[in-house]
Amino acid sequence: MNKKYYEAYEERYKQVHQSQNKAWAGDKPSPTIEKLLKKYGANSKSSILEIGCGEGQNAVWLLKKNYNLEASDVSAEAIRWCKQQARQVGVDENRFFVMDILNNHLDKKFDFIFSVAVLHMLVDDKDRSGFFNFVKKHLNHNGKAIIVVMGDGKMTRKTDTTKAFELADRPFENSIIQVATTSCRMVTWEHFLKEFRNAGLKVLEHFLDKTIAGFDVSMVAVVEKRERKRFVD
Ligand SMILES: C[S@@+](CC[C@H](N)C(=O)[O-])C[C@H]1O[C@@H](n2cnc3c(N)ncnc32)[C@H](O)[C@@H]1O
User: Does the Cβ of 71 fall within 6 Å of ligand 1?
Assistant: First the structure.
């Protein structure tokens, strides 16, 4: 079966884990995620889902802090790595599972959903709207989603998805290694905010952030479901 371009991270994780026995993205959680969870009232009872958890640097940290979190990724290698990290620090490895959010859904909803550096991997419009639909479908009434993507809100970029699995040189630690190219689409704020609106999601706040590990600057948006107004005569 043909792999989808957004599955190329699976190759990158395997290449780095096998040759370096280290995480591609390091192990530093992003302080912004916990700050926003707290700001919007998350506590140890709130149900939280991470989409595209990668090697688990945020999820493992939040599980250690007793948040009620589940974390998923389309990459089986990423989830294998997360489970291993979870065992090492004594948190529940069963909180991690493999799922392609563009082709699956869960039979439950969450108080919070967050996703770091996943949406910008989705290049095709159809896949991007699939991401927004997944978020909307899995948020509880009053639930909040925190979406972080690469970009400064001005720059635009769209990679060729047919090249996502090709090898490319990338800096890693103090050297250059060859890994799968993967994919990337950067959009302006205007475009990003319109995508949320079109998906029926209301943006509560949005800002640029320099604390997300691995990126010079990222765009962050906190959203909730836009409720349909009901008119009563
Ligand atoms: C750039 S990495 C970011 C990983 C992690 N959140 C981090 O901050 O290091 C993007 C992640 O999104 C995952 N991903 C891409 N498309 C996905 C999909 N359709 N469903 C679930 N995960 C997906 C990839 O496998 C990869 O782990």
Answer: no
Q: Is the CB of 9 under 6 A from ligand 1?
A: yes
**Would you say 177 and 170 are in contact if contact means Cβ atoms under 8 Å apart?**
yes
Rounded distance between C-alpha atoms, residue 17 and residue 170, angstroms: 15
CA of 108 to the centre of ligand 1 (A): 21
User: pLDDT tens for residues 97-116?
Assistant: 999 999 999 999 999 999 99
pTM over 0.85: yes
Q: Which of 8, 82, 64, 54 is nearest to 214 (CA)?
A: 54
Instruction: Indicate left, alpha or beta for 49 from its phi (over 0: left) and psi (-120 to 50: alpha).
Output: beta
Cβ of residue 6 lying under 6 Å from some atom of ligand 1: yes
Query: Could you read off the pLDDT of 150-208 as tens digits, one per residue?
Result: 999 999 999 999 999 999 999 999 999 999 999 999 999 999 999 999 999 999 999 99
10: left (phi over 0), alpha (psi -120 to 50) or beta: alpha
Burial (CB count <10 Å: 0-12, 13-18, 19+), residue 190: exposed
Domains, in order of start, for the chain:
5-225 (3.40.50.150)
